[in-house]
C-alpha cells in the first residue's frame, strides 16, 4: 500500500467534503486530485484526467451519481458515499467496489480504502501481460483456468458476470470491470456497459449491434466511437 493513488470527491454537500477531505488527509496512500459539487463538472474533469478512485454521492442535481457512472465509458473505481441504501444493488452493476452510508465513520472508510487497494493491485498485475493465453476465474467458489481463445463474450449479471464460450456458459463471481481488466485489450473490447466481446469472434457489425454466433449484442452509445476507431485500423 505504498503506491499513492489519485482520488476525487463528487458530492453536493459541503459537510460531506469536509469529512472525506479529513479522512483522505489521514490516508497517506491517497492523494486528493480535485473535488466537485455536481456531476457535470466531475464528468468534464474525468473526460480529460485519469483518476484511480472516485468518492461519489448518488443524490445530486442535474446528474446523479449513477447517471455519471452510466455516462462514463470506463469509470474509475468508485466508492459510493450516500444516505440512501436502496441503490446498493443497482450500483454494483457499474463496478462500484463499496457503499458507505452517511454519516461515514473513519474505521469504515479505512476498510473501504483497503478494499480498493486490494482490488487495484490485483487488476494491475493482471494487466501487465498482454500476451496471456488463459485467465483464472472463480466459478462456484473454485478457481478455473479458461483459455482466451474459448471466450466469445461476457455479460453483466447482477453481482456476477456470464462468460459465454463455444461449449458452455460460466457464471463468474466478479464484476464486469474486473473481467475487463483481466483480458488483454488488443483482443477484447467493452462495447456496452454490460458487454465485453472477443474482437476476433465478431461475425457481423451493424450501427447498433454486433453479431457473435446467433447472438446480437448491443453497442452502447458511449462505446461506438472506440469500436469505430478500432475497425478503421
Automatic annotation (TrEMBL):
Superkingdom field: Bacteria
PTM-bearing positions, type 4-aspartylphosphate: 57
Span of domain Response regulatory: 6-117
Gene3D superfamilies: 3.40.50.2300, LytTr DNA-binding domain
PROSITE patterns per the UniProt record, alphabetical: HTH_LYTTR (PS50930), RESPONSE_REGULATORY (PS50110)
Annotated HTH LytTR-type domain residues: 135-233
UniProt entry keywords in alphabetical sequence: DNA-binding, Phosphoprotein
TM ranges: none
KW Disulfide bond (keyword) present: no
Coiled-coil residue windows: none
SUPFAM superfamilies, per the entry: CheY-like
InterPro entries: CheY-like_superfamily, LytR-like, LytTR_DNA-bd_dom, Sig_transdc_resp-reg_receiver
GO MF term (any one): phosphorelay response regulator activity
Name of the protein this chain belongs to: DNA-binding response regulator, LytR/AlgR family
Organism: Flexibacter flexilis DSM 6793
Phylogenetic placement of the source organism: Bacteria, Pseudomonadati, Bacteroidota, Cytophagia, Cytophagales
